[in-house]
Each structure stands twice: as structure tokens, then as C-alpha cells.
Amino acid sequence: MPLKERLPQLVEVIEGRLQSFLNDLDFGASAELRTMLRYHLGWEDELAGGKRLRPVITLLCAEACGGDAAAAMPAALGIEFLHNFTLIHDDIEDQSPTRHGRATLWTRWGLAQAVNAGDALFSIAQLALLGLTETCGEAVALRAVREMNQVCLHLTRGQYLDIAFETEDAVDLEAYLAMIGGKTAALIAYSTAMGGLAAGASKVTLTRLRTLGEALGMAFQIQDDYLGIWGDPAVTGKSASVDLLARKKTLPVLFGLRESSEFRALWHVENPALGQIRAMADLLEACGAGAYVKALAGKYIHQAHEGLVGLFPRPNADARVLMALIGMLLHREL
Amino acid sequence: MPLKERLPQLVEVIEGRLQSFLNDLDFGASAELRTMLRYHLGWEDELAGGKRLRPVITLLCAEACGGDAAAAMPAALGIEFLHNFTLIHDDIEDQSPTRHGRATLWTRWGLAQAVNAGDALFSIAQLALLGLTETCGEAVALRAVREMNQVCLHLTRGQYLDIAFETEDAVDLEAYLAMIGGKTAALIAYSTAMGGLAAGASKVTLTRLRTLGEALGMAFQIQDDYLGIWGDPAVTGKSASVDLLARKKTLPVLFGLRESSEFRALWHVENPALGQIRAMADLLEACGAGAYVKALAGKYIHQAHEGLVGLFPRPNADARVLMALIGMLLHREL
Fold first, then answer.
1. I need a labelling partner for B13 at 20 to 30 A (CA). Which of A39, A107, A251, B202 fits?
2. CATH architecture label of A217-334
3. What is the ipTM of this complex?
4. CA distance B192 to chain A (A)
5. What CA–CA distance (Å, rounded) separates A125 from B305?
């Protein structure tokens, strides 16, 4: 089955299972807490579900390894809940008023309730994951929950750096890569590995799946950094140079701050005009930031493709779907 | 060994194990995140460790059930880390600038870093708990981690109500009890039960331990509510009527709001003078709030004592230490 048919099918199954898991939990007198989580997940008022990319990757990896999507489902659910817990707290930490065009949880229910709702979702993620006990046995469930908490610790280390960078003048490129390694790549690597683990993949395959996920996550984030400045608004759905407008210290900006004194001067202008934003993007291009970021994304894209070579010993239909998805993610127009 | 010798001994062991667990974790470039957690736990700058009451209860319950404190240690560590994760987020949600006379994490490092540090400690709590795999086997570890997440969900339900109550005019006494059941009693019930679980206690004993912990938690919290208004400043170390000053809707206040129109009128005075605070405390006493709260605490104290009868089939030295601790907790001067 081609990706464009398989993808909506998988997303629909995941969506249904996420909803029923949350609905089956007992919230007692705190039913509004469930409503908050349903709103965040896109099931209340204005509907707006996420892409469910991470659980799709988990299920496809399980199938590509010769396993069963149903066995890996608890991992997929746990990963999507976990991802959304981090989004709730990220929005608070970044003071983002909106996400996907809707009010964030903290702007709608207040800071205190939103912090608490995030905590609830973190617990729910782990409870969903522990369903692996029934589908894959105790040893797999224990390993998965231990690794999930290691990934979370990695995420918070990345998030620590991200928050710290905001108030730092000069950020090391290496520190930046460590930050996105925690913030983005760690959970994608967990998503690929858990698919393999649920399918009973060998130790070698698990390591390779993890490396693949890490490269995928790094490539994806670095592409995002590129598109945040040079992306076509018609394709990205965001304004041109959105990251410059938001003053985000992404990879091209860090490169520019180091390499171009002209860019540095403009970056420190308060409330820059639109013309100055455009000038900044041009200065970044001129000092080689665009080429640098493209090349670095290329390095991780190459790593991801290398990681796929021979990963699944007997190429099968499921592996082809996974590869198509990875290809789609890696080859966004740069 | 009498409680007053055993208690500091246990606290010292727990303290050392908590410190070494945190120090052994890899924080990479985010070493400051560890410093934040060490500060919160009382190991940086001004030293101020907590009472470590919950892990002490876990270890004493394990011993009273004929088990080994060493086997239960991972549960004790996980519980204390978890308790502290909730304190970090509580301080944010309540906007408390200080705890035990020191700046809270969010006032010192900012809101964003404090939310994130709390998340890190939640993961660390689960990683510490999973040490049960080595001391008690996979089945016990899995059960403990599943129940920890159920308890966390219960905690967030209680916290949801607590935050919601702040802006509600009339709070049902029943809803209030549900709130403290989640906020205080659930984790103490988990602390008693996990001691028994690590000691291989029977299903019946586990249920009884849980009921005991719940009664203990309820009694403790209701006593706290009493002492927050009528406690002797010389004993509590807090100002007289501290909860009225802080305008906390504790149990006596809810009772007074329902029963006394005079109290209700004074409660709604903005910035009440010290004389008015004293008058409020007197009105609460006069309308029967003090007697009501004392009686309710008494009900749970009785339940806790009932729970101890015959709980440990062969009374042993360890059970006596546990009972002495519980007696100490339950019989604070009301």
C-alpha cells in the first residue's frame, strides 16, 4: 500500500486509540482537566489534531521489522502523549500565546492549571506506554519505561539550554547542536527504537534504528531552522523570515552572529522594520549561513539514508512505506 | 532501637542515597540544571534538607513487614524525588516566593527554568524507582512504576481542584476532602504500600497498608489546617493564624463561610487588619469550625490506629518504630 493511503489510515487508528485511552481514565471531580487535555490534543471546540508523526514512525518501524503494529501501539500512544506534554510546558516556557493558530493551554486556562495539566499528561504517557506489558511482556515494558524517562531527562537538558540561550549573547554552534539533540532528536530516536523493540528486533537493529531516528531528528530540525528564514510562505504557511521576526536564535542566526558584523549590528536593532528583517535574511545568505545550514542538514540526511541501507534484511512492503515517509520528511524543499 | 535514634539514622542514609543518585546522572552541558535540583533539595548554598518523612515511612513499612530496607530503598528515593517535583511545580502554581525561608526555584532561576527542572525531577523519580528491578525483580518494579503514575494522575486531579477553589466562592466540604485526598493522602498511601510491596507482603497486607497511609495523610492534612489557624506560633514556627493571613481556603475557613455570616463578611474585607484576622479566628471557633475540624481529624486518626491493629502479625521491633512514628505524626497538639 502506498504511503499516501497508509498514512491517513495509521493516523486515524492512532487518533482513535489516543482518544479512547484518555476517555477511559477516571478524572473524578476534575473532569475539566480532561477537557483541557482534549483541547490541547485538538478534540474540543476548534478541531486541530497534530500530524502524529512520531507514533506513525513507531508503528511503521515495528512493521518494517516484521512485527505487528498492534503490539507496538502502547509505545506509539505513550510517545504521542509524551510529545504533547512537552508542547504544553514548552508553550509556557516560551510564553507562546498560540499554537497552530489556536490559544495555547496556559493563555486559555491560566498558567497554574496548564503546568498541572502538563504533569497529568506526562503520567498518562507513561501509563499508556505500560500497556506494552500486555502486548510485549514485562521485560519490554520495563525497558521502554526506563528509556522513556532517560529520554525525558535528555529533553529537559535540551530545554535547559534552549531557555538559557535566550539570554546569552554568543551561543556556541556545538552547544546548539546538543540542544536540538535533546529537544528534537532524542524523542524521534526513541520512536524508531521502540518500534523495533516491540517487534523483537535484534540488539544491532535497535542500535541502528536509534541512530537512524537521531539523524532524522537532527536533519528535520536543521531543515526547520533553514525554512524559518528562507522557506516559501506559500509552502510553510508561515510568514517569510518568521524566525527572524520572532528573534529566535536558530542555527543560521548563530552562524551570522559569529561571521557577519553587519548582521550582528542589525540583530541588535530594537523593533526592526520589515525592510531590516529582509536585509538580515540577505546578510545571512551573503555570509554563508544558508549554505552552511543546508550542508549540515545534508550531512544528517546522508546519515539517515546510510542508516536505512540494509537495515531491514528482507525488503518488504512495510519497509518501503517507512522509507517513503522518511524520504518525504528529509526532502522538503530547501 | 527507639524512634529518636532510628529516625536520624534513616534520614542520613536516605539523604546520602538521594545525593549520590542525582550526582551519578549525566547532565552534559546542562550541569546548572543539576545545581537547581540540588538547591531545591537543600544541598546548595543555604543548607535545608526536608524531613524525608515519606521515604522514612516506606523503609519502616518494609522492615515492619519483615523485609529489608535496602530492597525498598529505590522506592524510597523515587517517592522523595517525586514529592519534591510536586513541590517545585506547586510553588510555581501558588506563586510562592519562599519555601522554608529560602527563595523558591522559580523566583531564583525564573519560571521557565523552574517548570523544566520540575519535569526533570519527575523523570529522575521514575528512574530511581526503577532500581526496584535490581532489588525486587521485574514484576515488582513494573507494578511500582504503574502505581506511581496512577498516584501522579491522582495528585494532578487534586491540584486541579486546589487551583480551581481559589477562584470559587463556595467550595463543597466533600470536594475539599477529595482535593486533599489527591494532594496529600495519595502519595502517603503509596509510601506505605510500596514498603510492603518491596517486602513481599500479601495482598491483604498491601490493601491495609494503603488504607493506613490514606488515613494518615488525611489526618495529617486536616491537622495542618487546624494548626494553620489555631496553632501555637512557638510550636509551629509560623505566625498565628498564618492561613488566614495567606487567605487560604482551608477546611475551617470553608466551614465558617458556610456557617457564619459574620465570618463571611469579614472574609471579604480587603487587606484585613491584624485585629480583624484575630476576630476571624474567634468567629471560626464560635461557629464550631474548630470543633468540626478536630473531630474530623480525630476520625482519620482513629482509622489510622484501627489500621495498625494486627497489621503486622508478629509484633517486632521494627513495627514498634513505625508505630512510634505514626503516633508522633498523629498526636500533634491540637
1. B202
2. Orthogonal Bundle (1.10)
3. 0.94
4. 21
5. 37
